[in-house]
Amino acid sequence: MELKAREQEAGAEYASCASVGARVALAIIVVELIAYLSGALSPYVPLGELPRLWHMSMSEYLAAAHVPAGWGWLALAGRGDYVNFIGIALLASITLACYLRALRGFLRRGERLYAALAAAQLAVLLLAASGLLNSIGGG
Amino acid sequence: MHAADTATIAWWIWPLALFVVTFLLGIVAVIAGVGGGVLFVPIVGSFFPFHLDFVRGAGVLLALAGALAAAPRLLRDGLASLRLAIPVSLAGSLFSIVGALASFAVPTQALETSLGVLILLITGLMLISPAAHAHAPGSDALASVLGLHGSYTDPASGERTTWHAGRVVPGLLAFSAIGFVGGLFGLGAGWANVPAFNLLMGVPLKLAAGTSGLVISIVNTPAAWVYFLKGSMLPVIVAPSLLGVMLGAQAGARLFRVMPARQIRLAVIALLLFAGTRVLLKGLGLWS
């Protein structure tokens, strides 16, 4: 397959993944925001408490509101504020999903160099999403 | 703004104000050709009561969402190159993680001061950028191995342009630095990506601008995960801002033809000048 055709195929695969992912994630974020601000789901940190907390630094806020860092939010995902994190996590996972698809395409077309670069990018994304870096850099 | 001044204001005023401001930012960002994140962080960081940690967390996600929304169309139109984006994004991603992690070790005032300086530099870059032109780089063995060449047809003019990227190693170094800065301040980095592609690597401006959006969506992802898992995303800030910027960008795309782009761009430059000065003075403790 010619370089131009390979580029178009890879671009189209990535585009369809990003397009679907972004729409789904944003639709979920809108629904979650309505559930949160309307009070349909009760928040873990009461909305009225927020003006006392949001001027604090992240570490002060986590301590004052007794909020877990890392993947600890999953235990609170049924609460109005933390249900929003599902949409945010989904939004941040789209690139990962699209790279997985791109990697499959590169391997199928025998583009080993780009398959290796895509695999390396996936490793970087997975490292960031793992929470293993949470203890680095303070906060 | 002091906490005591804002604690008396009903909580719901702030997400509502945030939605209105980000909707307007979404409109002007499209018309002025700048990313929403670069406007969001200094403006919301200066004029809202939220700590910069949460503003940066929202900013990185806003830049990611905006770039993700635009990337599919650009890729389908051939105005963004995945082949060009992949190597530079890998370098940028690694350093965006370093930048995001480093940001939590830096005192807030130092971060505000350096953000103010950066925003003023970006304002300067925006003032001079219309005069910038690409210089065709020499042959580059690494660019040949990576296949960094091709052609695209501009849908507006119907003109077909062939391109060859070069200076790949300096390009990778530039995108590493840009990734670090983007991660550190929670910004998208279109203001730096486009000159790096265009002026350094010799990529035509249209392809540089399109691929820059794709690069932002990739490079900001690991930084977004760091901010998210560290705990610096508040739903009450993130969700209305995302909604405002996305709806504003759609309105901006419709208004694009009728709004005076030059005047809007000048207004954005003035706004950035003011917000950059405000953040700088806040960081220096001269305007709290």
Describe the structure.
The complex is a heterodimer of chains A (139) and B (288). Chain A has 139 residues and is an all-alpha fold. Chain A folds into 2 domains: 3-41 and 83-129; 48-76, no CATH class. In chain A, 65% of the residues lie in helices and 0% in strands. Chain A has 5 helices and no strands. Chain A has helices at residues 3-37, 50-53, 58-64, 84-108, 112-130. The longest helix of chain A has 35 residues, at 3-37. Chain B is mainly α. Chain B has one domain (19-283). Chain B is built from 12 helices and 2 strands. Chain B has helices spanning 3-7, 13-32, 36-47, 52-76, 82-103, 108-128, 141-146, 168-185, 190-200, 205-230, 235-255, 261-283; strands spanning 149-153, 160-164. In chain B, helix 2 (13-32) packs across helix 12 (261-283). The longest helix of chain B is centred in the last third of the chain and has 26 residues, at 205-230. Chain B is globular. The mean pLDDT of chain B is 87. Chains A and B meet through helix 1, helix 2, helix 3, helix 4 and helix 5 of A and helix 1, helix 4, helix 5, strand 1 and helix 10 of B.
List the helices and strands and how they pair.
The complex is a heterodimer of chains A (139) and B (288).
Chain A: H1 3-37, H2 50-53, H3 58-64, H4 84-108, H5 112-130
Helix pairs in contact in A: 1-4, 4-5
Chain B: H1 3-7, H2 13-32, H3 36-47, H4 52-76, H5 82-103, H6 108-128, H7 141-146, E1 149-153, E2 160-164, H8 168-185, H9 190-200, H10 205-230, H11 235-255, H12 261-283
Antiparallel strand pairs in B: 1-2
